[in-house]
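quick q for whoever's on today - can somebody do inverse folding on this one?? i tried earlier but teh output was garbage lol. tokens:
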């Protein structure tokens, strides 16, 4: 299967657990939202629009009071998830310590609420009628119990989430929501519509729900011993929770303070006209929120590279699922509002809903990087972002509400969400992915508006909606195809996705274990440290790799160094047996000749010669007068020619040694450019082919070439360094044979490329077992520096993305390599074009790296 699904059994089980947990969270949240949805019309009928608006503000106030838990709820989740299968006593100590701290902070909150309640009434609820404010005053004895109940509930839910007990968590939260919503409703139906009675019912429902959650924690943590507080657990909980508490303090201001601004400027009735559509469209966030809760403990338990890959996968998955849903909701929200709350309120609320949906579109994908940062012990990053956003948002909110009313509040919220999402993606290194996804969402929103403006009169409201939603589905299919490869739509893959069935075979045409012959056992050696930096800490990258290109025997494991972030095989073939991997290798073929008898052949040769003539002051023929300037206008073609010439210096010639010269393609070009060309290769058949170019070629290999010291002006290693057992020793040999000030030219696959990210273990650049070591820019620069080179300069790469994707696709599907070039499928072709565009902004993500380093003069 494609890279993102081709995991070890452990990772497959983890993926299944994430999917199962997300489904459970989604089901629980959906049922809770259904309770809220059904209760709103009943509340409006029984207590009235204004009283319901005040009750909504109090619900938001209770939400804000959750910030005084000092972030201990989230800290409990992270702590329990990171502990894993630790002794039961330690888990219980974490739970009781967190609960004690939260109860203490909740009591402090009760005291503050008691003394500052009148200030709240006078300043933030000044738009509420006097009679209702008097009812609120009578409810104060009940409200002071809310803070400790809320803070304790955050620890109870956090503990269940950290232990992965998502079924119990959602059952408990659903029961708490029903009690919290239905208890006041029962009182209202009995005639007790005063706010003090309704608030008493709210608090009683909260308390009952917290008690139920506690009994669930007793079972699933489990709690068997007497309660005990471990003072040593308090500092790590407070360090993590401190940043969470800042997020909890700033978060409600960023998400619910708009209601208070609306109440102050437009009255409680406008709060209802804003809150109703906000609550309705917020129901779409159930899926990303459910995924976030499932991801958080997983991010805390994974290694860094695995967590980052899961971050990208989850982000794209959320966008794929949310794009059609939100597009459909753009068309359905007004009819839904009419059915829910009536025509009059729907007319005021629908424009607000449309604007909020654009913000929610982007906010949906923000759940994943937010969860990633929390899971990787960086809760400080979202907290700092929220504090940074707070003042600009409040000023913008106040101004836009004053100018445009509730529509202005929706605009301010959507703008703030866009900035927040951009910052989160930037912090996780995925800013370019955010730009792509935000452009998609804005485009789909523009399509919706055009459809409403033009298609409504031509084909009708329903048909325009169907057309727009169909377009959004197409966009999601392209995104899914681009991220996960062409096999995502196979039945087996879909079954695996939804069932976690490890028996879903045939997703990729993998050779069976029995069909791959073993490498001779005496021909293997262990490699327990990184060949580049020498560090031993490492993480498994891939297991059971096979040679899908040239059918060498053996199954191989690739590890990623935690020091330089390069990768290497362990175990690997010994130098004595590595030749088995090259028996069908492609260095034996004769160098290609351009057919000058055809018009196309003369044109290609003329353009190439024109470029080389102008750059190197030569007189190659055939040539074209304007050929050089034509090539200069095509950066991709120019980069290809520079690569063919391996960036040989201009205005000088000398001696060049191509180590691993293969069939001599470069030697022929170097000779034509006036250089004395030498080559060396371990393959005797390749040596014979290369000698036919006229260059001086001998058989040999790194690091013991037997060449003269300080002899060559330039040494080139084209896709050689990844083949050697000791890359540092090989580079030192190159340093020895170079003249002082001479240049070393190196090209090698890039482990950080977009192609590797997409195809994973099927990426063309892996090529086990010939590629013993794989580099990224930092590890290659480190190797050159350790070998004694200075002034390493990475060169512009020519566009190889399409070729690498085409080759990787063949490996994915087990297609033969020698039956001619195949065009990429449409979705993958778009992905390749997009990757080439991104390479302009991020050259460190190209498929190959080319660097020129110099020997000290």
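ok took a stab at it. sequence:
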């Amino acid at each position: 299967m494609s890279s993102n699904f081709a995991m070890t059994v452990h990772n497959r089980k983890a993926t299944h657990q994430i999917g199962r947990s997300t489904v459970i969270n989604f089901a629980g949240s959906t049922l809770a939202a259904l309770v809220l949805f059904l209760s709103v019309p009943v509340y409006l009928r029984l207590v009235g629009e204004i009283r319901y608006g005040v009750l909504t503000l109090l619900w938001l106030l209770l939400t804000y009071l959750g910030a005084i838990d000092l972030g201990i709820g989230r800290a409990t989740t992270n702590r329990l998830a990171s502990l894993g299968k630790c002794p039961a006593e330690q888990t219980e100590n974490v739970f009781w310590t967190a609960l004690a701290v939260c109860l203490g902070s909740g009591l402090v909150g009760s005291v503050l609420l008691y003394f500052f309640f009148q200030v709240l009434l006078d300043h933030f609820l000044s738009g509420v009628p006097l009679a209702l404010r008097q009812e609120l005053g009578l409810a104060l004895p009940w409200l002071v119990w809310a803070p400790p109940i809320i803070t304790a509930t955050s620890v109870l839910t956090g503990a269940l989430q950290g232990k992965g007990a998502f079924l119990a968590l959602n059952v408990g939260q659903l029961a708490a929501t029903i009690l919290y919503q239905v208890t006041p409703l029962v009182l209202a139906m009995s005639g007790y519509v005063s706010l003090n009675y309704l608030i008493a019912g709210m608090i009683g429902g909260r308390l009952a729900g917290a008690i139920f959650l506690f009994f669930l924690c007793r079972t699933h943590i489990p709690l068997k011993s007497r309660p005990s507080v471990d003072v040593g657990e308090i500092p790590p909980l407070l360090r993590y929770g401190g940043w969470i508490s800042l997020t909890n303090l700033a978060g409600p201001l960023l998400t619910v303070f708009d209601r208070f601004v609306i109440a102050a400027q437009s009255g409680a009735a406008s709060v209802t006209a804003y809150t109703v559509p906000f609550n309705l469209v917020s129901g779409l966030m159930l899926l990303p929120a459910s995924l976030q809760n499932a991801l958080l403990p997983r991010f805390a338990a994974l290694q860094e590279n695995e967590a980052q890959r899961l971050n990208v996968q989850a982000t794209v998955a959320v966008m794929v699922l949310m794009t059609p849903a939100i597009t459909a909701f753009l068309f359905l929200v007004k009819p839904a509002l009419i059915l829910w709350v009536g025509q009059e309120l729907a007319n005021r609320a629908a424009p607000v809903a449309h604007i909020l949906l654009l913000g929610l579109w982007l906010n949906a994908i923000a759940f994943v990087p937010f969860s990633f940062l929390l899971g990787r012990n960086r809760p400080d990053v979202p907290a700092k972002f929220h504090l940074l956003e707070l003042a600009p948002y409040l000023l913008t909110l106040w101004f836009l509400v004053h100018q445009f009313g509730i529509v202005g509040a929706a605009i301010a919220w959507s703008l703030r969400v866009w900035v927040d999402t951009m910052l989160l993606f930037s912090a996780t290194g995925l800013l370019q992915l955010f730009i792509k996804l935000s452009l998609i969402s804005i485009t789909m929103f523009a399509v919706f508006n055009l459809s409403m403006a033009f298609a409504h009169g031509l084909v009708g409201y329903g048909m325009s909606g169907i057309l727009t939603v169909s377009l959004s589905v197409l966009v999601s299919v392209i995104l899914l195809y681009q991220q996960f490869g062409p096999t995502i739509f196979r039945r087996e893959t879909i079954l695996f996705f939804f069932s976690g069935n490890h028996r879903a075979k045939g997703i990729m045409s993998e050779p069976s274990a029995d069909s791959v012959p073993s490498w001779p056992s005496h021909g293997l050696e262990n490699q327990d440290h990184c060949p580049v930096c020498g560090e031993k800490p490492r993480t498994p990258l891939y297991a059971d790799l096979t040679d899908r290109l040239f059918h060498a025997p053996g199954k191989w494991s690739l590890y990623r160094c935690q020091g330089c972030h390069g990768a290497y095989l362990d175990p690997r073939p010994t130098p004595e047996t590595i030749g088995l991997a090259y028996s069908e290798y492609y260095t034996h073929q004769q160098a290609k000749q351009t057919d000058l008898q055809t018009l196309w052949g003369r044109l290609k040769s003329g353009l190439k010669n024109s470029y080389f003539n102008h750059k190197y002051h030569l007189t190659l023929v055939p040539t074209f007068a304007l050929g050089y300037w034509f090539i200069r206008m095509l950066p991709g073609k120019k980069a290809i020619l520079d690569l063919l010439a391996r960036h040989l210096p201009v205005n000088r010639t000398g001696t060049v040694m191509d180590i691993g010269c293969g069939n001599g393609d470069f030697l022929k070009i170097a000779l034509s450019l006036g250089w004395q060309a030498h080559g060396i290769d371990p393959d005797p058949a390749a040596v014979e082919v290369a000698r036919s170019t006229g260059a001086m070629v001998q058989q040999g290999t790194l690091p013991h070439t037997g060449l003269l010291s300080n002899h060559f002006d330039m040494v080139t290693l084209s896709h050689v360094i990844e083949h050697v057992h000791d890359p540092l020793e090989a580079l030192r040999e190159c340093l020895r044979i170079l003249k002082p000030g001479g240049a070393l030219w190196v090209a090698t696959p890039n482990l950080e490329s977009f192609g590797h990210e997409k195809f994973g273990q099927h990426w063309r650049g892996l090529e086990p077992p010939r590629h013993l070591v794989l580099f990224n820019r930092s590890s290659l620069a480190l190797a050159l520096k350790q070998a004694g080179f200075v002034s390493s300069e990475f060169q512009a790469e020519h566009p190889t993305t399409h070729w690498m994707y085409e080759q990787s696709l063949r490996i994915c599907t087990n297609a033969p390599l020698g039956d001619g070039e195949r065009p990429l499928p449409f979705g993958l072709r778009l992905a390749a074009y997009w990757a080439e565009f991104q390479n302009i902004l991020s050259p460190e993500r190209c498929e190959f790296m080319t660097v020129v380093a110099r020997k000290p003069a």
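fwiw DSSP finds 30 helices and 13 strands in the chain. also The first helix runs from residue 9 to 47. so keep that in mind when u check it
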